[in-house]
Amino acid sequence: MIEEVSARVPESLAAYRGGVAAGPGGPDARPLASLRDPAVFDATLAAFGAGVGASSAGLERRALVSYWSQFYLAALATPALTALVRLGRPLPLAFERTSLELDAAGRPARLLVDPATGRGGSCLGAAQVPQPGLAGLVEDHLRPFVELCCAQCGLAPRVIWGNAAVILDYVAGELGAGDAPACAEVAACLGRPGGCACARTPLAQALCAGAAGCRRRTCCLRSRLPGVPSCGALCPLERCAEP
Ligand code: SF4
């Protein structure tokens, strides 16, 4: 199924085509669940901080976790939404059965799923069948991811939900039309008109309308890091949103 998804990713999102793969990954791949161990998470964040040139202690730690999550969510969003919008099916991205691979700069680069579930075979047990729609991704993956990030640095959950909403909203826009019921469900989960079971989740409430499109409701802190650009028109603070 993952090959099928890759083939349906639009050119504008080609850089994220390989964000989800089936298999064990390289020797440094780590189960997402292992990141709940503070020592594993700290080592992962320290590698990322070294690449960015930022310390992973004190106030900067929260900004660093937020920025780290943006790379993670970028890897996740394109394959996950392409599967939903273009094929009308979810990828098997349950948090507890997915691993993470980093690139040479310590950035989250690829999520790895079990090859059996990645093929989307009919032999899957009930516990391995992904919940449908973006609502399923929210419950099976995004919610535990947000909890992980917040538990490891004290960030408010709305910061990570905002990061997820920004990238998912962008990818949904690039994908455009597709499987009609899936598109309607994705739109409702992102807080657009329609209404569904997930319409009142933090994801649906993370963005609001701005003069130049949607913008965050909550600052993501990234511009506290040295050399990291601002969020431009997405910024909720008027003075930072100027070009
Ligand atoms: S640009 Fe705005 S949202 Fe982004 S980190 Fe700066 S203040 Fe926060």
From TrEMBL:
InterPro entries found in the cross-reference section: Fe_iron_reduct, IucA/IucC-like_C
One MF term in the entry's GO annotations: catalytic activity
Every Aerobactin siderophore biosynthesis IucA/IucC-like C-terminal domain range: 66-185
Superkingdom in the source lineage: Bacteria
Protein name (Swiss-Prot/TrEMBL): Ferric iron reductase protein FhuF
Organism: Methylobacterium gregans
